[in-house]
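Hey,

The postdoc asked me to send both predictions to you directly instead of through the lab channel. I've kept everything plain text so nothing gets mangled by the mail client. Protein one:
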Amino acid sequence: MKLRFGLYLPLVAIVACTSEQIDSEAPEFTQVTINSSEEEQTVQTGTVLNMNMTATDDESVAQIKIDIHEAFDGHDHGKREQSSWTYVNILNTNGPAVNVSDSPTIPAEVASGPYHAVFRVLDDNGNEGAFIEREIVIENGSQPMIQVNSPSDNDSFTLGQTITPTGAVNDPDGLKEVHLVLLHIEDHHAHAVDEQEEDLTTSPTSFDLSSMQVTIPTDEEPGAYKLLVKAVDVLDNHTLHFIDLTVTQ
């Protein structure tokens, strides 16, 4: 009996030691805020973004990465006259619970429009937690101005119906593109079901939205939809305007 016990004891010790060395638990964010909010932020060029992040891990949080980039959706045509803003910063941390901040200044000369701020967290053993994304709209004072008179939020339409908005887009520098996009919202995700795009080669300072229309496909499902008006001016400033719609059978 003593011999058998002596043979098994080292094996048990090795197994226990090996299992203790494996860390497969990923870290996680407990809070990520921009200017003390988790909601979409509209901010001005030349101002400071105050970002605060808290995260935990069963052993130790090693790094938090911040990646801010434009979300102009790739529809723009031609050469850009004004650069979008890109910001990347990696914050080294230590400990099972961390609270860190970062406060970059938005450059004065960047294109206005929607931006994504993506936050990632890594622990000491290379495990990466779920990322967090926050939405930012940057304005520089020269962005296109969109005025939609109709439809209005919560208006109702039926499958197969055509939507013709009324209103205008204005920009003293001149407009380059106007898009009208109908989006179907399903499971918190949006996909385009119809779109009209106008390339404005004469760079007008005003555009009548009633010249555009989209149609709700008859093979789509009823539910929540959004109508998006997107304008791009000659300086590559972007403005997006969303209207919440309901579509019935």
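Protein two:
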Amino acid sequence: MKMAKANPADLDMALELAYALESISSRHGATMPETIAKPQGGEDDTEPFSVEDSENCRRVCEYLIRLAPSASLFRVVMGMTVLLDPTNKVVDPTASTLEHHPDTLAALAAMAKSASDGRE
């Protein structure tokens, strides 16, 4: 399966969205996304977020609605889906981290051996 690669704007938007969702749903004190947070008293103070506060919810919804069309979240998510698809043999399906597929590693090792033997 082929899929268009996410461009830098897609990745930036996906990261900003992920950060915003983490901010408003944090178990350790939900805060407004940094981009739309109103300045608080101290340097490290963050504006709290409450789902019970209609003003907070309106601001977050407006922010997310403006953010969504700025790039393609679909390209980011589908790109990772294609990358992780075991039939594509891009990453090791048994690893819990992003690692080269064993077939790729074997091919690279064979190429290196061939090159060192003088047979490219």
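Summary for protein two, as requested: The mean pLDDT is 92.

Thanks,
C.
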